[in-house]
Amino acid sequence: MTSEATRAAVAATGSTTSLIYDDWYQAIRSSEIADKRMSKAMLLGIPLVMGRTATGRYFAMRDSCPHRGIPLSYGWFDGKQVTCKYHGWGFEPISGQCREIPSLTERDSLDPCRIYATAFPCEERDGHVWVYVPQSGRGKLRADDLSQLPPVPEISKFSRRFRSAYLTADLPCNIDHGIIGLMDPAHGPFVHQAWWWRSRASIHEKEKRFEPIENGFRMTAHQPSANSAPYKLLGVYGEPITTTIDFVLPNRRYEIIRCGEKWFASLTTVTPTTENHCRIDVCAAWNVFLNVPFLTPIAKFFGNRFVRQDQLTMIQQAEGLKYNPSLMLIDDADRPAKWYFELKQARLESQTTGKPMRHPMDGPVTLHWRS
Ligand code: FES
Ligand SMILES: [Fe+2]
Q1: I need a labelling partner for 285 at 20 to 30 A (CA). Which of 85, 108, 258, 333 fits?
Q2: Third-level CATH fold of 23-133
Q3: How far apart are CA 326 and CA 183, in angstroms?
């Protein structure tokens, strides 16, 4: 994409944007789904009714009865079947297949089993129920068959014992602003000022190497100076420390820090709930300080502050975006954001043409910015 095109893409994100279908998205925390209770979620503007069957499988159906469109979430669920509140049609929730139409008599030839409510493939990972959202009108997808689908995303774990934590925040902006906020290296010293983190005066020049990976790019493993305080704190003298940060379409940022046996890994996503709203979810897992009490609540406290600072900034940004200002992306600090727009464009094109996706980066690139 030319810089003009990039500018146009960003300018256009002030209001609505195109969404990427045919991929996995986190719909809801699995802890929000309790026995025989149906829960509601929204993904890419699609209302969902979700639950868990008596045999322990999660389901996600479009929250709309195929008969007259009343939300199925107003009906009943007995652990096996979702029953519509209006005329009592009963659906097997994993496949969406209709099993029962109470109004039919012996004289009717209609076979309920030929009718389907829309059901989506879903799977649990890291405490979230992930839902695969296909492009509508692209043939029927069997919600109970995951074999043709890409793997469900998850955090890499490098030991059997680990701790984990989770944070979330709603963002009043479209997916593109959420994502470029996620990969923006230059806001740190301004948005995340805090005595325990960093001040504005700590800005200095950084040099980072990026390389193309499938569906995204990687900030290549590097070693921070081994005598810095955090590493002394970890008690990991002498072991090499490596960090990698990957961005992968449609919306995932994976970070992995490893040092000998110790590791920290996180997956941060920005999920479009509707065209103009998204939600940031941060899931982290680690095996550092496993035996320190209260570490998880403390980590959550600081993590939460971080996410709130981003959220507040985006709420304020949304005030400005209401009036459709024209915007810009600059080098090198906004280059990852440019790659995101180019990758998204390439993905959408390949989905329309059926041709393999062309990667916008043709090799490793070193970027410089001050932050
Ligand atoms: S609207 Fe659902 S059964 Fe009629
Ligand atoms: Fe931030």
Answers
A1: 333
A2: Rieske Iron-sulfur Protein (2.102.10)
A3: 20
